[in-house]
Amino acid sequence: MGRGVVHPVTMDRDELQPLHPNYIKAVRLTTMLLVLPFAIGALALESADSLPRGSFVLPVLLVALYLIFRTPLRRYHARGYQVDADRLRVVRGLIFRSDTVVPFGRVQHIDVQQGPIERLYGLGTLVLHTAGNHNASVSLPGLAHADALAMRDDIRAHVKRETM
Amino acid sequence: MSGSADTASGEWRRTSPLGFLLGAVMNLRHLLLPMVAAFFGTSAERAALYVVPVVLVGVGLTFLLSWVAWRHFHYQIGDSDIRVQRGLLSRTVRSVPYERIHDVTLEQALIPRLFGMVEVKFETGAGGKDELKIQYVTDAEGAALRETVRARKSSKTDTSEAEGVPSEGGSRVLFAMDDRRLLTFGLFEFSLIVFAVLAGATQQFDFLLPFEPWDPEAWMDWLAGSGDWLQAFGFAAQAIGVLLALATLGLVGLVTGLSRTVLRDYRFTLEETPKGLRRRRGLLTRTDVVMPIRRVQALKVTTGIVRRRFGWHGLSVVSLAQDAGAGHHVVIPFARMDEIAPVVEVTGFELPSADLVWQRPSLRHRLDRAALAVVPLAGAAAAAPALNTYLGLGMTAPLMASFAPLLVAIVAGARGYYLWRHDRHAVDARHIYVRRGWLSPKLDIASRIKLQSVEIVRGPLARRRGYADVKLGVAGGTLELVGVPVEEAQQIRVAVLNSITSLDFSRLAG
Hints:
The complex is a heterodimer of chains A (164) and B (510).
Chain A: H1 22-47, H2 57-78, E1 80-83, E2 87-92, E3 97-103, E4 107-114, H3 116-120, E5 123-130, E6 137-144, H4 145-163
Antiparallel strand pairs in A: 1-2, 2-3, 4-5, 5-6
Chain B: H1 18-41, H2 44-71, E1 74-77, E2 81-86, E3 91-97, E4 101-107, H3 110-114, E5 117-124, E6 132-138, H4 139-156, H5 160-163, E7 172-176, H6 179-188, H7 193-205, H8 216-231, H9 234-265, E8 269-273, E9 276-281, E10 287-291, E11 296-302, E12 313-319, E13 328-335, H10 337-346, H11 363-391, H12 398-422, E14 424-427, E15 431-436, E16 442-447, E17 454-458, H13 460-465, E18 467-474, E19 477-485, H14 486-501
Antiparallel strand pairs in B: 1-2, 2-3, 4-5, 5-6, 7-8, 8-9, 9-10, 11-12, 11-16, 12-13, 14-15, 15-16, 17-18, 18-19
Helix pairs in contact in B: 1-2, 6-9, 11-12
């Protein structure tokens, strides 16, 4: 349990752990739900017959397909994390790449969140809260829910050990 | 460190069943006013037809939602943490280790009090924004919770209080402003805020004015009219008029600055006491703030455009946001650097020493920034006369149109050059120094060990050109190194992380 996930890795630059592959599906489903109103809107405009056939549906469809199939994949590959003995590193972002390290010694409290879509795919989001104004909460989505819970327990155990 | 073995000890508990009724009642209070309005806004028979059912449904929904929330809210007093689980669709489990709980407060609003219910709040260092609270348990349960948490917490730690007491008994004045200094300070606080307030008030109350203040034509007429009238007096009189107007402006600015400063900083005193830095100031409302020195996270040395030329600076401390609203306190508003230095020493920080090695941000970063500002403006300057000719816009002074953007472009270029010459950062064994800014440069001093997190951010341009921003988490403030070469950013991160991980938060915050 848990131990499989949290093996100590050295702070090597590129040795990032990928997220759970289900993360791609979850992001796809979320995107679909977001795109849905626009698709309906395009269909409605199309039925008004004001412009040549397809001038609303086609662009919307192309953009939607890109957002649904390509972006989640790129997002997945852009994300990663690394758990060391005393710190968590979270890498994210397609255009603005951000690479955050939170030492466990600075964690105030820990959330494990699970939205409806995440629950469908057995995923969870780990959120670490720190006292800093910047990066007050660092979230790591797309973990298997059990792994998120195990990481939470390890971080909490670390906090306890440090203060003994 | 067995993962979840120690969590089994405490069982999951619900809040009091009365809690959901109370929650619903508390939420209904917000609906009360619209409901009353709806009742009085409609006639009797309509009220019976529409308003009553809508209100009933609203009340019913509130109770239902409150019940669902209550049903799915669980808390657990574990061996090493408190956990709260909530949510039906989105589930969140929050875990707060006892070591991080500073205090437990019991809050009783009026209605819950009638039923003997309390809200339990657990305060952590997270600065009040995202705290853990358990809404509505019985008085006895609340008190028991508080006792349990305090007991667990004190059995875990508490070496922190004893070592926090400074050896000195009495207090010592570190800095005080006499009236002369106060007046000098007031002169430098020159402010035209009155005009901003007036403009704002005009916008609010323009319907009361006899003319249209936001209609340019009305102004033109008005000016043209009085212009004619002024013309009669000749050039000298006009010049005198302009001078008088400027003098009035200056006088208003000075008086505003002086009075604001005197009101705020009258008899400013900073003392070192066993409890920390104590600041007293103010003429009409005198404030008295004590900042524990252990809580100080970072320092800021500030200055202004003009006062800098005369060698005046100020000092602020950034502290854990808990003590009083803002986590940022002025401890010296206006002083010479040699008056600031002893205070910096008292806080346990250091001003940059003479042999400190300063680093510049990446030259590419500076060039990119300058180019982003200058190129569009220069383009606009070049395009303006051409557009005028080809499109026949009929501008009266096409050269003027290109002159303005050109001027701004030159200023932007000069600013870029100045920042390249003066923006600096330095990392020594204990501190990080960041000096930034053009007209009123600021110096930030942060203690490496007291930082909370490190982030490296790179935008599209930064990735191509090999630089990065380093954002450091400071409790109560922000600290950023902008446009640092990537290798250096990574080195800084490794160094800072090594400092941070050497000491746990609980021994830091006091």
